[in-house]
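[Meeting: bench + compute handoff]

Bench side (C.D.) handed over the final construct sequence. Compute side (W.E.) agreed to return the predicted structure before the next meeting so the bench team could plan truncations. Sequence as handed over:
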Amino acid sequence: MELKNAFAGTLESGDIMIQIVPSDADGLDIRLESSVAYQFGEQIKKVIKETLEERGVTRALVTATDKGALDCTIRARVTAAAVRATGKDVWKD
């Protein structure tokens, strides 16, 4: 699947900024910056990975800057970034 650079989210409290960049390497390289990474980092990365794989994105560099987002917000931001990166709208039939 061909990707282009894409962003979604903000750096406001309770949100997360997601950047997706095409990668030649296999797999998803997820880089997380979060003040709660020690407690929730693995869960945040898991939600990002699962959401991208559901959208068919399996090769990308993902940079996530978390400001205390809940899982539902993380899913929404990752989905929006994936739609922008792939051009494949998941909300249309």
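W.E. noted at the follow-up: The mean pLDDT is 94. C.D. will use this when planning the next construct.
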